[in-house]
Specification:
The complex is a heterodimer of chains A (399) and B (286). Chain A is built from 17 helices and 16 strands. Chain A has 399 residues and is an alpha/beta fold. In chain A, the strands form 4 sheets. Chain A has a 6-stranded mixed beta sheet, sandwiched between helices. Chain B has a single domain, classed as MetI-like (MetI-like fold, Orthogonal Bundle). The longest helix of chain B has 40 residues, at 18-57. The chains are: A alpha/beta (399), B mainly alpha (286). At the A-B interface, helix 4 and helix 6 of A face helix 8 and helix 9 of B.
Chain lengths: 399, 286
């Protein structure tokens, strides 16, 4: 297992890095440097350590320099100054061969847009790192299949990445890294391109995997909730500067700068939590072609007392309760037309919890979450509202 | 006619002898690299002779079947049927041998074009210098009327098949270089980055990521290269290249519309077969 030490890493984009560095030393602001030299400060003297088996999250909004910083750590971007130590080796001083070996054996990276190779099958993608290490075909395919098992993609080995959903593609991206069994995982906004529900699944799965593998993980995100959930420690970045590094709990309790304070003040308020964040996936949905018996069967299988009906392109049509369905079956009806409730309470994904409380209080059936194009996204039951609040207020507790 | 006057100052500049300069340069080059051109000439004409003799050795019907089978495998059943009927027609009107010579010239010219074009295209994406030098030359080569290439080719390699071949290569190589370069540049940045992050060498990155992903674009370049080679091979009949171009040329000289038409139709048939086969290969890879 590896430890990482980042010391004063600075990245200047532009043609006068020396001048810009001098100005940084004189505490001249990023904006002024841009004005005077035309150069942009990407990362400004980042210093931190990541311990063995730790998940270290770097959180910042776009333009904060977080993606630049993570790329400085494996030199996909050359830092302008500063050092990156992995164990006792200085990555920034490595020559080409040493750097290549470091990238091959010591670390692996997961990318925001997956960056899978469309001309290779899933298994060939996963085996890519091993292929680069010149490991024999037989051996690398064996390891690739093991890695695919690990991320729950058994049986997809021979598909092309384009055939998989976003969540599954990122699992492939993760498996591609795990296959080389690196000590360090760099994850650059790894889950940001995924739907909220799938993102949550992936976060849980990463935590689950981490409890078994114990890698050193550097995780980049712009999502504070994600940072608080995953990070053993979280660094908050703004304008290339790390504003605070602390455990999630401490970031919430003792924000050290105004920026961090502004950032986290909303966290424990039901104002920022949205319907999208607390909704649950429907365990089953009815389709327009289903008759009462079919509908009842689906409910029984899923163990639910009511079911939403959606059209073939996922547009919400209505709601059927199990009682009504049973009556229809007893009356030997063949259509659900009579028992379908068409006026269900719906809400948009970005409705805040505060507003949801009122909605759910008056509703007798679950509230359906639909997006602008009337697509059914998920549903909200009263219990999930509360658990959502509890979870967010104490993100560090095990759920 | 206008007389020189102060109102037309351009007339006071003496004529710049661009043509003479080119003549001089070519002349100098000719003496300088004469032995080399003779070697190339011997090898090329020998190679082409052997290749066309080999193709002519195969009974026409068998060769037609083979080509149709290839068309079936690489393209579709329809292309295969077309190939069979088209080639049989060419045999029927007695232009088989000429067609084989034309095909041989195309094969060799395209082979040489790829040999030069693909590495040049790759180099242009690695070194900006190569790009800056090669691209203006390509612009120049592609805007120049095709006939002009025939003249220096004759100078260096005398009348005949080899000159035609060289002119054809010069004419058909630009799309290979351009589209190889373009294809590699179009490979998404994040995939190249991912490859780098796994510790690839430059060669691994090129062969395992960039070239496979650029393949559809490169194949489009190959397709264009073949089409250009075919058109040039016909024009090159003017400097004694033989083949179907010679048939067309004879038609023009004798004002024999029928002969010219037969030659022309044969060229079109070859063009369609070659185009469809290479195009389908391209689609399949995508």
């Amino acid at each position: 297992m590896a430890t990482i030490k980042v010391e004063n890493v600075t990245k200047i984009f532009g043609d006068r890095p020396k001048k810009a560095l001098e100005m940084l030393d004189q505490n001249i602001s990023k904006d002024e440097i841009l004005e005077k030299t035309g150069n942009t400060v990407g990362v400004n003297k980042a210093t931190f350590e990541v311990g063995e088996g730790e998940i270290f999250v770097i959180m910042g909004l776009s333009g904060s320099g977080k993606s630049t910083l993570i790329r400085c750590m494996n030199r996909l971007i050359e830092p302008t100054s500063g050092d990156v130590w992995v164990d006792n080796e200085n990555v920034t001083k490595m020559n080409e061969d040493e750097l290549r070996n470091f990238r091959r054996y010591k670390q692996a990276m997961v990318f925001q847009k997956f960056a899978l190779f469309p001309h290779r099958t899933v298994a060939e993608n996963v085996a890519f790192g091993l292929e680069i290490q010149d490991i024999s075909l037989e051996e690398r395919m064996k390891k690739a299949h093991e890695a695919l098992d690990l991320v729950g993609l058994k049986g997809y080995a021979n598909q092309k990445p384009g055939q998989l959903s976003g969540g599954m593609q990122q699992r492939v991206g993760l498996a591609r890294c795990l296959a080389v069994d690196p000590e360090i995982l760099f994850m650059d906004e790894a889950f940001s391109a995924l739907d909220p529900l799938i993102r949550r699944d992936m976060q849980d799965e990463l935590l689950n995997l981490q409890s078994k593998m114990n890698k050193t993980i550097v995780f980049i995100t712009h999502d504070l909730d994600e940072a608080l959930k995953l990070g053993d420690r979280v660094a908050i970045m703004k304008d290339g500067i790390i504003e605070q590094i602390d455990a999630p709990e401490d970031i919430l309790r003792n924000p050290k700068t105004e920026y961090v304070a502004r950032f986290v003040e909303d966290v424990d308020l039901s104002k920022v939590l949205t319907a999208e964040g607390v909704m649950v996936k429907a365990k089953a949905v009815a389709r327009p072609k289903d008759g009462p018996r079919m509908v009842l069967r689906k409910m029984r299988e899923a163990g639910i007392s009511g079911i939403f009906m959606v059209s073939r392109d996922d547009e919400l049509i209505g709601y059927i309760s199990s009682d009504d369905a049973r009556k229809a079956v007893d009356a030997d009806q063949t259509s659900v037309e009579d028992i379908l409730q068409r006026d269900v309470v719906t809400t948009l994904p970005d409705t805040t919890l505060n507003d949801l409380f009122e909605l759910t209080a008056s509703a007798t059936i679950p509230v359906a979450v639909v997006d602008e194009s009337k697509k059914f996204k998920g549903l909200i039951i009263r219990g999930s509202l509360l658990s959502g609040l509890v979870k967010e207020a104490y993100p560090h507790d095990d759920e | 006619m206008m007389t020189s006057s102060i109102l037309n100052p351009l007339d006071f500049i003496p004529r710049i002898p661009i043509g003479n300069w080119v003549d001089d340069i070519i002349q100098a080059l000719r003496t300088a690299i004469g032995p080399l051109t003779r070697v190339i000439s011997t090898i090329l004409s020998g190679f082409m002779g052997v290749l066309s003799d080999l193709l002519l050795l195969i009974p026409p019907f068998i060769l037609i079947l083979i080509i149709s089978a290839v068309a079936w495998k690489l393209a579709s059943q329809r292309v295969a049927v077309f190939s069979f009927i088209g080639l049989s027609l060419i045999y029927n009107i007695g232009l088989w041998e000429e067609s084989i010579i034309t095909i041989t010239m195309i094969l060799v010219a395209v082979f040489i074009s790829l040999l030069i074009g693909i590495p040049t295209g790759i180099l242009s994406t690695r070194y900006d210098m190569v790009h800056k030098i090669v691209w203006p030359i390509l612009d120049f080569m592609q805007t120049m009327p095709a006939f002009v290439y025939l003249i220096p080719a004759i100078f260096f390699f005398r009348l005949g098949v080899v000159s035609a071949m060289i002119a054809t290569v010069v004419f058909s190589v630009p799309p290979v270089i351009r589209l190889t370069g373009l294809g590699i540049r179009l490979v998404p940045e994040d995939m190249v980055e991912a490859a780098t992050a796994f510790g690839t060498t430059d060669w691994q990155k090129l062969t395992k990521v960039q070239l496979p992903l650029a393949m559809p674009t490169i194949m489009a370049g190959v397709n264009q290269c073949i089409m250009l080679a075919l058109s040039m091979v016909v024009i090159a009949a003017m400097i004694g290249a033989g083949g179907l171009g010679a048939v067309v040329l004879r038609g023009i000289q004798r004002v024999d519309l029928g002969l010219g038409f037969e030659g022309g139709v044969s060229v079109v048939i070859l063009a369609i077969i070659l185009d469809r086969i290479t195009q389908r290969t391209k689609d399949a890879k995508e």
